[in-house]
Amino acid sequence: MNVTTRLNGKPFSFDAAPGERLVDVLRDHGFMGTKFGCGTGECGACVVLLDGEPVNSCLVLAPRVEGRSILTIEGLGTPAAPHPLQEEFADAGAVQCGFCTPGMVLSAHALLLRNPSPNRQEVAAALDGNLCRCTGYVKIVDAVMAAAARRREEARP
Amino acid sequence: MSRILPRLERYHRPTRVDEAIALLRAGGRTTMLLGGGVSLGMLPRPNVREVVGMERLGVDQVRREDSVLCIGASVTLGRLDSELIMGSAAERLLRDTVRRTATTPLRNLMTVGGVIAGVGPWSDLPVSLLALGADLVLNGAAVLPIETFLAKGPRVLDGALITQVRVSWEGVTGGAFLKVGRNETDLALASASVVVFREGMHPRIRAAIGGLVPRPVRIPAMEDTLAGPPLDGGAMTRLIGSVVSPRMDPRADGDYRLALAGTCVVDCYEAARREACR
Ligand SMILES: Cc1cc2nc3c(=O)[nH]c(=O)nc-3n(C[C@H](O)[C@H](O)[C@H](O)COP(=O)(O)OP(=O)(O)OC[C@H]3O[C@@H](n4cnc5c(N)ncnc54)[C@H](O)[C@@H]3O)c2cc1C
Ligand code: FES
Ligand code: FES
Questions:
Q1: How far is CA B250 from CA B146, B210, B257, in A?
Q2: How many CB pairs (< 8 A) connect A and B?
Q3: What domains are defined for chain A?
Q4: Which residues of A touch B99 (CB under 8 A)?
Q5: B48-70, pLDDT tens digit by residue?
Q6: Closest to B165 in 3D by CA, of B206, B106, B119, B108
Q7: pLDDT tens digits for B67-99?
Q8: How many angstroms separate the alpha carbon of residue A103 from the centre of ligand 2?
Q9: Residue A107 and residue B7: Cβ atoms within 8 Å?
Q10: Which residue puts its alpha carbon closest to atom 12 of ligand 1?
Q11: For residue B194, which of B119, B130, B277, B278 has the smallest C-alpha distance?
Q12: Model-level pTM greater than 0.90?
């Protein structure tokens, strides 16, 4: 079936079998930043933003995104023009193997859009669906706090 | 590539409840009604050939009518969290329960109707809805108390859709939900929800527990005991143990679940009572 969405700010149509997962559709179309981990909603490696909210794309059937707006990590920043969150993750040492990083960054991005001045508990709560097997989370929370501070600084007149 | 529903052939998006019911009836056992689809992460459904999606049925509003909170069945838990107001003890209890359910991205998928219809020992929100005495609206018309639904199990729906959940906040002065898992986002090993109502001069208590038996239960003896002289978690554990036989699985044995439930009930009651006295 044909599904029409907006992906990373641009119109995007694709053909998919009705039982296909959104994560597979994205990866098949070259958006490899969305990772496939557990496939059961446990790890958060597949998190993308659907209408601005983080969701586990391994549990989203492709037809469900008809008419909706998807943001993947490729739509947030590029190697040439990284998003401040991506820069802060790199600077804080919040990335080791990197498998969890796209989902983490997107969950953090959704939080900062809603709450520009979170405390550390609020950051941890917003990232509760993203598992990291490498970093121990402290540097990830540091990175999100630094990105939030930077955003506030840049927003000053 | 691994299909989540490997045999799925058609995805329907009805816009009316009667249309959805007709599709479900025509499709029989190989047709599934889909709320958030999160249950597919727990229970693979290899034989499903058709899906009837809830997303265009127009049952996605949160409204307040008189003293009743009306929650559309396809409202996600994430959306419900953002719509609840903190001035109401009943809504505060629901918010606390929602925030203890699963994880942020899963809550943005799970629907209120789906977490009720997909009830199991893991269920959180149904525990608090039972303590609050909520009603389910089926097919936009018939009303079924959640207590009856939970006592009889999802089969009582007999093909009907839950279209709305109605929660009266009349008389609710305090409420608390507690859940114990191996970590913050784990499924409940045991959980409890206690609500204190004021009726005239006298407080009335409703209490429910989850995690111990296949579906959340309300135990009236527990409520009578809470209304009496203060008691500790151990006594409450013995009381619950005299009424239910808790299940065991590799995550926890029955005695451990019982002990957790007893403590949760007593602690919830204390928190609910404190809120009611404020
Ligand atoms: C990784 C993971 C973690 C979880 N953690 C928790 C947790 O912490 N707490 C908790 O309570 N639960 C938890 N769950 C379980 C989850 O709440 C249930 O699977 C729930 O059913 C999901 O809701 P949904 O809207 O996605 O339902 P769906 O998957 O869409 O549907 C579930 C069932 O309900 C039926 N259904 C859906 N909507 C309706 C309706 N309106 N009327 C009638 N029938 C309907 C469907 O046909 C299906 O049989 C977890 C699940 C997973 C996979
Ligand atoms: S791959 Fe989706 S949550 Fe793990
Ligand atoms: S950096 Fe390896 S899983 Fe997070």
A1: 30, 17, 12
A2: 96
A3: 2-76 (3.10.20.30), 84-155 (1.10.150.120)
A4: 125
A5: 999 999 999 999 999 999 999 99
A6: B119
A7: 999 999 999 999 999 999 988 999 999 999 999
A8: 10
A9: no
A10: B123
A11: B130
A12: yes
